[in-house]
């Protein structure tokens, strides 16, 4: 039985267990009613201008990550701090008197660190994940969850959130299975494996690589990437043409393999018999680092082409050790990433500076995705004018694109993120650089995620005739239906 089929069967079993063991309809109803009650308190204050004796509960968001001190969690916490410092969500600071919003409250659950034990089976690891997801589901105040780093965690967790009515945004899951069920509460931020492989194949074509070695783990992740890359890279020749591109070696191995001496023998044979231009690798970062290191020890100098999962300290440490030499390694190993630290995009550079000021070190792409995941959820809350999960999810599914640190976000009906272009990252002369990119592919969205009222005049950007007013202009009168009169010329916008 293939790993792909195993994952689907395990997912099906998980669905049956959830349905059998949990009164999820009651859970969903209680969650909706809890959120609705708090929404009504704020609405009453805005409509009447009067305080009530009812306490304003915070909006609770779950964070599932194996390490509470990870960059991802720090990114989440930074975004939450910014939003709370600005008054939270759903308030009306422009009202007289001002109506305070609801603050965000994070529940960080690091129970998945138990799944890092390499001796556990896939099913045992997923059982741990389901337990974490159910801990969020047991709390009726949790309206949304972000996290679950790996696809083998995010896929079963998504089933729990769907049945318990919790909006779920998966920042790093790329497995096609996450959105196969077309759940209406589930979203992903990173393009799926098929989309990643297609962009990697296009990159190889542009670099002029004709012959490629494909190495992948026998996991759903590795198999999906390898299969998709193969079909995208190999161009079918016409009857009179020689093949334009070729896979000279396709090799897979179990995820727990640690000795790659037999693989090195095969690579030497492939090099001698047919030569190759690059090595495409679809494994976890630890395994990729081991194979990379061993190949360099054996004298191979070809670049490694990896997926976004290799934008990881473990893999880059191995690359930095070798590719410091410009004369020997003229072709650089590359990894696609959504987070370009050198891009002259104001929202990205502002985030980097804030993160460094808050924590004292540079953010990585996990930190950026954590930060963006909160901003996107808050964008949904603000545009929906509600903390009810189904309202948040519905709004996210139909919203126009918004701009975040890692790019533009807009979702398809199945919850997949719409087409995203990757930056191709490599190491040269002691620092990370990015392949020259046509930034027409990275045109900014009209509004930033989480900021639906740019000039803070309590009129949403999409309904504001003058969304960029200064404080001085606002003080002289701004009206929703283009009735703002400029103090300079007496004309409306």
Residue windows where pLDDT falls under 50 for at least 5 positions: 480-493
> Would you identify the CATH architecture of the largest domain?
3-Layer(aba) Sandwich
CATH topology of the largest domain: Rossmann fold
User: Which CATH class of the largest domain?
Assistant: Alpha Beta
Structural class: alpha/beta
Residues in helix, %: 40-55%
- Overall body shape: elongated
Count of β-strands: 14
Largest sheet: 5 strands, parallel
Q: How many H/I helical runs?
A: 15
Distance from first to last alpha carbon:
65 Å
Question: What amount of the residues lies in strands?
Answer: 5-15%
The neighbouring-strand order within the major sheet is 2-1-3-4-5
* Overall average pLDDT: 87
Number of domains: 3
Order of helices and strands: HHEHEHEHEHEHEHEHEHEHEHHHEEEEH
Q: What would you give as the CATH superfamily of the largest domain?
A: Response regulator
Brief overview:
With 493 residues, this protein is an alpha/beta fold. It is built from 15 helices and 14 strands.
Structure overview:
The chain has three domains: 3-190 and 343-418, Response regulator (Rossmann fold); 194-337, Rossmann fold (3-Layer(aba) Sandwich), CATH 3.40.50; 453-493, no CATH class. It is 42% helix and 14% strand. It is built from 15 helices and 14 strands. The chain has a five-stranded parallel sheet, with helices on both faces. Strands 7-6-8-9 form a four-stranded parallel sheet, with helices on both faces.
